[in-house]
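S.,

As promised, the magnesium ion run. Input:
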Amino acid sequence: MQQQSPSPQDTEQRAALLALLYDMILIRTFEERVSSLAREQGRLPGMQITCIGQEAVAVGVVRALRPVDVVVTNHRSHGHMLARGSDPAALMAEIMGRADGLNRGKSGTLHMADPKNNVLMTSTVVGAGPPLAVGAAFAQRYRRGPGVTCVFFGDGAAAEGSVHEAMNLAAVWKLPVLFVCESNCWAGAQAHQEHCPIGEIAARAGSYGMPGEVVNGNDVERVLETALGLLEHCRSGQGPALLECLTYRMHGHGEHDPQHYVDKAELAAWAGRDPIARLAGALGLADEASGGGEAGGGLRALRQRAAEAVDRAVAFADASPYPSPEEALEHVYVNPIGPGAPGSQEG
Ligand SMILES: Cc1ncc(C[n+]2csc(CCOP(=O)(O)OP(=O)(O)O)c2C)c(N)n1
Ligand SMILES: [Mg+2]
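Predicted complex:
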């Protein structure tokens, strides 16, 4: 029987899925490099926190956003930022604390912002992102802009009073906020059931008068489709929404944490639900281990492209100097008055 050639729509759909797959592979490759650099003496300052295993949440949600939308991220930020289009080289340089980093080496991995891509800030104070997102969404509405603010937070953060207050206020004022809970089964070394009396955090949405949805956070297509629906609600002036993505933190809390407290069988079960393998499988792309052929080569090519981007990022960061001590206080605070102050004629 003669094979039918794919319709342009099918080809377009496949290209869109391949783009999602590449973004997830880039995040994985970038963070695996961060993880290995963190094990070398003197390479990376500070604590390194990765989202390995959670890439579908970052990629699915961020793909649903528009450039005008604002992102507020948390301590597990690399995936959100790469998905949003942050330059991997500038990101790696920032993680290494170098002068050519995204924030001139002053934030390191835990406090990054990327104004060019509307990533307002990273808050590593657990539960502090949602109230800041409410402020950003208030500004968007006050200026009559078309944007929505999307805030990522963890299942542990959902237990903080500040998250309750943020959801309540956003709902009362009908602000355009998409609250995205990355329910990754852990908060530090505490399992979900040890800090949360209910299975699904999205069940709380109804009590704030907002829609809430729970999705398989390792299924990037479902994450994207559900985020698009909830963002539509936020854009239409009906107020906030809550998206809970069920996923798993495949590494320890940070790269210093060997996660001895994690049941190996649980880890293996979640490894079998890997978001990258899932989409690659759906696209009919074989993994290298299983032979390859033309389709396997496709996956290999994506991995190769990501590895080259990460190699370039590391080389760029390595070549960048540390910021000079003389500029330690520059670009840290906004000058509230005088030249350069917000609204000033002179700057
Ligand atoms: C207010 C506050 N309390 C405690 C911490 C220390 N801390 C950092 S991350 C974390 C766990 C957060 O868990 P969760 O919100 O589920 O996010 P995940 O790390 O799983 O992505 C804790 C307790 C902190 N940074 N801020
Ligand atoms: Mg968590």
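Confidence is low (pLDDT under 50) at residues 289-296. The pocket of magnesium ion (ligand 2) is lined by residues 154-156, 184, 186-187 (CB under 6 Å).

- D.
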